[in-house]
Amino acid sequence: MLQPLALTFGEPAGIGTDTALSAWQRRNEFALSPFSLTAAPRFVTRRAVRLGLDIPIETVEPRNATATFAAALPVVAIDAAVTAEPGRPDASSAPAAIAAIRRAVSDVLGGTACAMVTNPIAKSVLYRSGFAEPGHTEFLATLVEEMTGAAARPVMMLWSPELAVVPVTIHLPLGDVPARLSTELIVETGRIVAGDLARRFGIARPRLAIAGLNPHAGEEGALGQEDRTVVAPAVERLRQEGIDVQGPRPADSMFHAAARAGYDAALCMYHDQALIPIKTLAFDHAVNVTLGLPLVRTSPDHGTAFDIAGTGRADPSSLIAALRLAARLAAPATATAGAGAR
Fold this sequence. Notes:
The chain has a 12-stranded mixed beta sheet, with helices on both faces. It is built from 13 helices and 12 strands. Helix 4 (93-109) packs across helix 6. It has helices spanning 16-25, 41-50, 65-69, 93-109, 123-128, 136-148, 177-180, 183-199, 226-240, 257-260, 271-282, 317-330, 333-336, and strands at 5-8, 35-39, 57-59, 73-77, 115-118, 155-159, 164-167, 207-211, 244-249, 265-268, 287-291, 297-300. It is elongated. It folds into 2 domains: 1-154 and 300-342, 3-Layer(aba) Sandwich (Isopropylmalate Dehydrogenase); 155-292, Isopropylmalate Dehydrogenase. It is α/β, with parallel strands linked by helices.
């Protein structure tokens, strides 16, 4: 791989920089592909000192990150000062986090990085600064459209070797889900998932399992009409388009080992229906993957962990998994063909 991965440091007051430093330390243990940390170099140095880590840090342009990676952690500088302390975001947090995301997207789209990996951000901190997007994923779509002129429809997938899940609706109050769920939304999501499983993961014929909304997938209408009127028509449309799809299936029997062997990704109707099973099975190594974009983006499946930032207790396992998956998905198609989602 000639181009490095672009890793953002996320919320400065969180554990993103801690785990990035740890991942670089363990680069040989996990055979990590070269990555650069998009961040404020002085801030990274301060955090390394606080953690008691003797890690050489070198400010580079992305094109030089690969050559630097073996001997020092390459840092691609953002034009933002950072004053936030561990666990205490301040007025510098949001501008720095946003600047790092913007720079990483620009580097990937410009060809000086092969994929991006994003460390966690704190949505509440961003909202207080006037940030208008619901979250990371939506902001990435906005940046792609701004930089390329092409609209993007991002889809969030949580991936692990044990299970891959896609929430069709994401950060909504549970009471709002039935009104926001539609046949068209399920169909569009299914198309994107099937397309990227084939294009990025090298699965020749992806198999999708679609969960019902209601208990027992509605019991033929006895426990709600949505599975008959919304979900089932979406399954049929996807099937008519040639996608290998099954459902609506009762969500309570979709995630045991034998059931998981029958599909490559599960489409779930709401946030917790998707995230509870994958966090139960793969809490420390699940990866957030954004599908539907003209770039590869992964992220660790955890938050900012303000309570342990700067203490040395942050576990880099999920970030390491995200870096490894990003490198795999950014590799030429011939390298991933036949590898399967898992």
